[in-house]
Amino acid sequence: MKILTVLGARPQFIKAAAFSRAIKKHESVEEVIVHTGQHYDKNMSDVFSTEMDIPLPKYKLRTGGKMHGAMTGQQLEKIEEILFNEKPDLVLVYGDTNSTWICCLRI
Question: Which burial class, exposed, middle or buried, applies to 73 when counting CB atoms under 10 A from its CB (0-12, 13-18, 19+)?
Fold first, then answer.
């Protein structure tokens, strides 16, 4: 089973940490992390991989720091491509950020 986890802001990383650690216990489950970069700062993103044992993102979209329309448009375009290529069995989103609603628009 392949699970695609989409994260974009600090609270989402914190929520995903426990689930990501649980997934690691099951060899038949692969987790693919997508970091939209909605809130991107090395101190607020990469640190979660090391300190909370979350896998490093396979995809870093780097869509933060743009006007709302540009950011969400780029997220939609890039997430759609990732979903098409990865073909996950399950998509996980956390919270109520742009990253979450963009994923919901596509799936």
Answer: middle
Instruction: Work out the burial of residue 8: count CB atoms within 10 Å of its CB; fewer than 13 is exposed, 13-18 middle, 19 or more buried.
Output: buried
Q: Which of 59, 29, 31 has its CA nearest to residue 45?
A: 59
Query: Rounded CA gap, 62 and 75, in Å?
Result: 9
Per-residue confidence (pLDDT) for residue 41, from 0 to 100: 65
According to DSSP, the residues that pair with 93 across neighbouring strands are 6
Residues shown for the chain? 107
pTM over cut 0.90: no
Which runs of E-coded beta strand occur in the chain? 2-7, 30-35, 59-60, 90-93
What amino acid is encoded at 46 in this protein?
D
